[in-house]
């Protein structure tokens, strides 16, 4: 591979419209993304030495990592740790992955606090979980402990209680036989496994036994 010389031809890739193919001294030498092509003014007649060549390739490699991150983020919001892991999985270095995450954060594509807030809201609405399980899920997503506490601290007790009620109602709706003590125990253990606190589970057991909220739903 030539690493120095004069650019004698520039071709746009026929299939990858944002990629340019560069010839040095009438011989194909390298390819770069359009952004790198423009940034470094890689026009016909430009003289390139080995140091400049290495700089251009580093910039193009970093641009590839950035574009990979943006594409990954385009499907749904991600935490900074998720993006970092994704880039490492694509064989980019940890150092580069960290730089790309910092860049995406500065540009507003990554916001761990907003991600955690939306994650909790969606879970409570669609797949109810208690605070403990939500904490474990956010931890797996790489959210900082301080942010986890901040976001979970915004959950009202009644919000979590309503989420647990919804789960219990769903379970009860599928049970046709009379609820005995063994079945009741299984239902309550199910709520505990979903991360709901003992105080919430205890309150729901008391409500359920009085049938108050079940009767309200039937009216």
From TrEMBL:
Residues 111-152 form the RecX second three-helical domain. Keywords: Cytoplasm. It is found in: Cytoplasm. Its main location: cytoplasm. GO terms for biological process: regulation of DNA repair. Residues 158-203 form the RecX third three-helical domain. Residues 65-104 form the RecX first three-helical domain. Pfam families: RecX_HTH1 (PF21982), RecX_HTH2 (PF02631), RecX_HTH3 (PF21981). GO terms for cellular component: cytoplasm. InterPro entries: RecX_HTH_1st, RecX_HTH_2nd, RecX_HTH_3rd, Regulatory_RecX, WH-like_DNA-bd_sf. HAMAP family: RecX (MF_01114). Belongs to the RecX family. Modulates RecA activity. This is Regulatory protein RecX.
